[in-house]
Amino acid sequence: MAISATHLFLVSFITLSLFLVISKAESESELVADLLALQSESKSGVIHLDDRTVSKFLTSPKTPRPYSFVIFFDATQLHDKSELHLRELRNEFALVASSFITNNNSSNTKLFFCDIEFRESQSSFHLFGVNSLPHIRLVGPTAKSLKDDSEQMDQGDFSRMAESMAEFIESRTKLTVGPIHRPPILSKKQLALIAALLLIWSPFVAKKIFAGQTLLHDPKIWLSGAVFVYFFSVSGAMHNIIRKMPMFLVDRNDPNKLVFFYQGSGMQLGAEGFAPSVWRCLLRFSFRSGR
């Protein structure tokens, strides 16, 4: 009788353990399926999270989770602040997401790109300890505390946009993002329209060229170009550009007075080179017209 009870206990324990393992696996697979569905609904592959979905996918499931998150923290009310570059960084983040999905479509890499908006999810901002923007965090499968166990991208790495984001992900996850697929400057429709316009205009342009009626056949255009090149070369304009020299300075003794010629040595203002060059050009033209 004791043996039967022991066997019954072992069978019950094994059955319960298998049930819990299967239930956990089914729960994890359902979460991954939900994430894949949300990813497919997004044009760029970036999943939009709020307080409810943060709880569903991050705080409620037990660790280790079967996926990792790269999260971009956004605030639409700050998009107008040009010094933050939030709009540009959000677009670059979307480029990284779409490029990663395209380059790793055949592999089973459960890395999801997400964004969280401040007005919608202030509680989530507090959970992550986000108090400044721009802000990107990587949440790994074993992260229990979203603030302490997740990894933040360094603020100084945002200068290279999508490329620096890809390097951050690759260095932390050991995954390969792959090349960044940037959209072309002109779409296929725009290229087709330009090609059609060129075909339409080509007979008229050819007629003008053979008749010698284009701007390139006008001596005044060549004369103006030659004068510009000459003036640019002798006026010190290249020196002003390289040295970033100002055209003039404000007089220290009289703020309402401008100084065009520097009295000291070792420095030349832009106007000092332009003034004699203008006179030189005028003299050459007057000499030419006199002949």
UniProtKB/TrEMBL annotation:
Q: Does the keyword Thylakoid apply?
A: no
Query: How the protein sits in the membrane?
Result: Multi-pass membrane protein
Q: Which InterPro entries match?
A: OligosaccharylTrfase_OST3/OST6
Q: Which family does it belong to?
A: Belongs to the OST3/OST6 family.
Subunit info here reads:
Component of the oligosaccharyltransferase (OST) complex.
Gene Ontology CC entries for this record: endoplasmic reticulum membrane
Q: Which Pfam families match?
A: OST3_OST6 (PF04756)
| Name the UniProt record assigns to this protein | Tumor suppressor candidate, putative isoform 2
- What organism is listed for this UniProt entry? Theobroma cacao (Cacao)
Stretches that traverse the bilayer: 6-22, 191-210, 222-242
Subcellular localization: Endoplasmic reticulum membrane
Q: Which UniProt keywords apply?
A: Endoplasmic reticulum, Membrane, Signal, Transmembrane, Transmembrane helix
Under PANTHER family, the record lists: DOLICHYL-DIPHOSPHOOLIGOSACCHARIDE--PROTEIN GLYCOSYLTRANSFERASE-RELATED, GH11935P
What does it do?
Subunit of the oligosaccharyl transferase (OST) complex that catalyzes the initial transfer of a defined glycan (Glc(3)Man(9)GlcNAc(2) in eukaryotes) from the lipid carrier dolichol-pyrophosphate to an asparagine residue within an Asn-X-Ser/Thr consensus motif in nascent polypeptide chains, the first step in protein N-glycosylation. N-glycosylation occurs cotranslationally and the complex associates with the Sec61 complex at the channel-forming translocon complex that mediates protein translocation across the endoplasmic reticulum (ER). All subunits are required for a maximal enzyme activity.
